[in-house]
Amino acid sequence: MSEHEHSSSRAFYVALGIGLLVLTAVTVKAAFINLGPWNPVVALLIATVKATLVVLFFMHVKGASEKLTGVVVVAGFFFLAILLSLSMADYLTRSWR
Amino acid sequence: MEQQKNTASLGMWLFLVTEIMFFGGLFCAYLIYRLMHFNAFAAGSQSLDIRWGAFNTAVLLVSSLTVVLAVRAAQDGSRKQLVAYLVITILLGLTFLGVKAIEYKEKFEKHHVPGPTFSFTEKFDDNGKQIPVASNEAELFFSLYFAMTGMHALHMIIGCGLFTVLTVLAWKGHYSPGYYTPIENAGLYWHLVDIIWIYLFPLLYLISRHS
Q1: Are the Cβ atoms of A65 and B6 closer than 8 angstroms?
Q2: In terms of pTM, does the model score above 0.90?
Q3: Residue of chain B whose Cα is closest to the Cα of A39
Q4: Going residue by residue through chain A (97 aa), what tens digit of pLDDT does each one get?
Q5: Domain count, chain B
Q6: What HEC string does A48-69 produce?
Q7: Which of A73, B67, B137, B139 can bridge B37 by disulfide, Cβ–Cβ 3.0-4.6 Å?
Q8: Residue B201: its chain A contacts at CB < 8 A?
Q9: In chain A, where the domains are located
């Protein structure tokens, strides 16, 4: 099995790095536009896109020959999602008491 | 060999998942308290300097790029490039910490550090409307600010230390295209610390500018 199998070219990594910097500029710009309740949504969506790109390509999860790594990553973020969504489901609905 | 390498990354990922849950707890606390004391959290967030935050985000993203290029150099067996990329990564990490130190110094000068001398007189700028906020609620924001950025900075310091050791070993020629697991795993750690900042930046600096 080739050592370079799950690694991309330098040019691809540099392009991805530039893309991440552009997304950072976009999210800063968006923060100064009044989108009402959508400001946090937009900021966190862009952050999630950036984080996903880092996980998939910089951390070599996409194209990893071991599929179990992907399962562990998804499970990790899934448990974080449970923590956040159940906590928010509680606190966001307390005004109904 | 391939199986050994897979096992090493899998183990590293299991550790990183515990880190995700650790910081996840802090994120969760931040979201809940922001919900409960929205005006004070927005005012505290608006008092942060967005330029330093954006600059540090860019620094960390570039350092992630140099880390992945270092891994690539290790795969190619290019010792000089590997050492060069590791050194650049450490320098970028130290730049981040330096900027953080400037920001912390400013917080001390403004008495925005939680404790007996804490004082917060800024108002929440709600699209031009100035709303006064309770100082003790703003203190809560800064407690979480220091807990989150401080814990992140500690991870950065550990990362810089790790890479310093790896640079020395790489210089001595410990790594080859057949064995570079420590570079790969330290890289995974560095990327995760980067991801945590990718979320800290909008949560602390951005989402309360306009809302």
Answers
A1: yes
A2: yes
A3: B207
A4: 344 445 678 999 999 999 999 999 999 999 999 888 899 999 999 999 999 999 999 999 887 777 889 999 999 999 999 999 999 999 988 877 6
A5: 1
A6: HHHHHHHHHHHCCCCCCCCHHH
A7: B137
A8: 47
A9: 1-65, 66-97
